[in-house]
Specification:
Strand content: 15-25%
Helix content: 25-40%
Oligomer: single chain
Shape: globular
Number of strands: 21
Radius of gyration: 28 Å
Number of helices: 21
């Protein structure tokens, strides 16, 4: 087993030539990539059209006094608890987004220097000056310990200006930023607590971070990440997490009552807010979204937070029922109604009476079945197949579809009157690619569950596995992430991490690519095989280009030709060329200097 990649503050200090434990601001501009110079070069102003970019992300300058006014108004209108939660989630989203942007911009940076770029980014954005006191982490095992001092916290300044010295820390948004950034880097939920704050009379703000399951009473911290009370605060770790598997949505053999909702992203929270708005009513709800986004789990949670939670919740997958049986499945059948009907049985409407009936993939119903469903909804009564009397039913109907029903109407495949009956309160569930802030939480959640289920102990995810999952397109959404992590748990070595080759083994396409030389000498792009995703291109050049070499070509000539072609392709931008070649900028610069040396040196 290879030695784990463990990074400590001392190692980062040696790598950069600076001590990071004494608050020396010059460490922000040390030699590790990305340096503060690299980050400042990523900041672009365009006053002519009113835009500012940082690492390709649009930014906006805002007066801290304006932020203070917003904070004060929130506290006065919605209270401390909700304001703290809102600002923590905003900070979390910003931190997770910065981590993603840094990974994309410098994909080959050393883990320690890339992690240390977070405090640089936070300082560059004007939030706070960060002084690392101690941090160490093991990317292979997902372990982490960190302690930092915050100087000149803008959040603490505006809070203290309005409310003076108090008894509780007030850097809520910055704490959320630290949680989001570190969790996205490590691939596991890392929770920070502000144990000292200038708003409490301390000289500095002090922050301590470690994995969620190593904190006591971590639910107190996690509740601020959740917009709604019905979202799990225990699914990510905490008391008992090591002894009990996470309860997983989607396992058919697991009771609904054990399922939990996991997420902190703004897109997820927006859907949860809409769910809460309609939960206490009897309105029909239509969930839309791609396959695998969790429509059934949302439907069940809608039932749980509504007035019918003590009554049955009955789910029907319309796509799984043959057209000839859909009427008997929905409305029931009387004995002798047709050959094989040896006894009477109730349908799903009767079984759900008083509770909630969930019709999944409703767009697959035939036009005949749609007409019968419409009549049942309009009349509030059904008639069993072969029956002679009507049966009154009282159900709250919830439907879901992964197709555009308006387009189905235009194509003549779905009844417009049924659509208007269903579309009382539509809720769109976002795909996983639009809620990437949730991916680190879901990774750890699924890893813990499947480790328990399959009796396998895995320690975390490697850095390149985290990179790949954070940047993967996820056409199968949460269901696909769930399957990938389960596969990784099975493939990974006991007491070892889940690595990239354990995940993408069945044809999934990554976003990376490699370049090779054709016989014409032109640079050609190819999709990378999973085994080399995240690896240096020049490490695999000998085997890739052996057949391309002409009679007089050497591997050194091929390498130099590839380097020069890559640099030319990006107009001399060494950072971009290095990313294209799978090298760090320093490695490419070294090779370029060798190419420029006269022969014989």
């Amino acid at each position: 087993m290879s030695k784990p990649h463990r990074v400590s503050l001392a190692e980062v200090s040696r790598a950069t030539g600076k001590m990071l434990s004494h608050g020396d601001s010059q460490h922000l501009n040390a030699g590790a990539v990305p340096t503060l110079d690299d980050l400042t070069q990523s900041l672009h102003f365009s006053p002519g059209d009113g835009r500012i970019w940082l690492n390709g992300q649009r930014m906006q300058l805002l007066h801290t006094t304006s932020l203070g006014a917003l904070r004060r108004e929130l506290l006065e209108s919605i209270g401390v608890e909700r304001t703290r939660g809102l600002l923590t989630r905003v900070g979390y989203s910003a931190g997770a987004r910065d981590a993603q942007l840094l990974r994309e911009r410098w994909p080959d940076a050393e883990p320690g220097s890339l992690f240390a770029a977070g405090p640089r980014m936070h300082s560059l954005e004007g939030a706070v000056k960060v002084e690392p006191l101690h941090f160490e982490f093991d990317f292979e095992r997902g372990t982490y310990r960190g302690e930092f001092l915050w100087h000149h916290s803008s959040e603490a300044e505006v809070h203290q200006a309005d409310f003076g010295i108090g008894t509780e820390p007030a850097c809520w948004m910055q704490t959320g930023y630290a949680i989001g950034y570190t969790s996205a880097m490590i691939g596991r939920l890392i929770v920070y607590r502000e144990i000292e704050c200038t708003c409490m009379g301390h000289q500095h703000c002090r922050l301590v971070g470690k994995p969620a399951d190593e904190w006591d009473n971590v639910e107190d911290d996690l509740r601020f990440l959740n917009a709604e009370a019905f979202v799990s605060t225990t699914a990510h770790g905490g008391a008992g997490a090591r002894q009990q598997a996470a309860e997983l949505p989607g396992d058919d053999q697991r009771p609904y009552g054990e399922k939990e909702m996991v997420g902190v992203s703004s897109a997820f929270n927006s859907a949860c807010h809409m769910l809460k708005r309609v939960g206490s009513t009897a309105a029909t709800v239509l969930f839309t979204g791609e396959s695998g986004v969790g429509k059934e789990l949302f439907a069940y949670m809608l039932h749980q937070i509504g007035p019918r939670k003590e009554q049955p919740f009955v789910a029907v997958n319309c796509a799984a029922i043959p057209e000839t049986l859909i009427e008997s499945e929905l409305f029931g059948v009387e004995r002798g109604a047709y050959t094989g009907a040896s006894q009477s049985r109730p349908g799903r409407f009767e079984r759900a009476s008083g509770g909630t009936l969930f019709l999944d993939e409703i767009g697959t119903l035939s036009l005949v079945a749609q007409g019968k469903l419409l009549r049942a909804l309009q009349e509030g009564e059904i008639e069993r197949v072969g029956g002679v009397r009507s049966v009154k039913v009282d159900v709250r109907l919830v439907a879901a579809t992964n197709v555009d029903l308006r387009e189905e109407i235009r194509q003549g495949r779905f009844r417009e009157d049924l659509f208007f009956r269903l579309n009382v309160f539509p809720i769109h569930l976002p795909p996983l690619r639009d809620r990437r802030d949730d991916i680190p939480l879901l990774m750890g959640y699924f890893m813990r569950h499947y480790g328990k289920k399959h009796q396998r102990r895995v320690t975390g995810f490697t850095a390149r596995a985290v990179d790949a999952l954070l940047n993967y397109h996820f056409p199968g959404n949460i269901r696909e992430l769930q399957n990938l992590v389960e596969r990784g748990v099975i493939f990974a070595n006991e007491d070892g991490p889940i690595d990239l080759p354990h995940l993408f083994t069945s044809g999934e396409k990554s976003n990376t690519s490699y370049f090779s030389l054709a016989q014409t000498g032109r640079l050609a792009s190819h999709d990378a095989a999973p085994a080399v995703v995240g690896g240096a291109l020049l490490d695999v050049l000998p085997s890739m280009l052996a057949q391309e070499a002409g009679p007089g070509w050497s591997l050194d000539q091929l390498e130099s030709t590839l380097i020069l072609a890559a640099v030319k392709r990006v107009d001399g931008n060494l950072s971009a060329a290095a990313r294209m070649l799978g090298l760090t900028r320093a490695q490419l610069s070294y090779r370029m200097k060798k190419l420029q040396q006269p022969a014989g040196e």
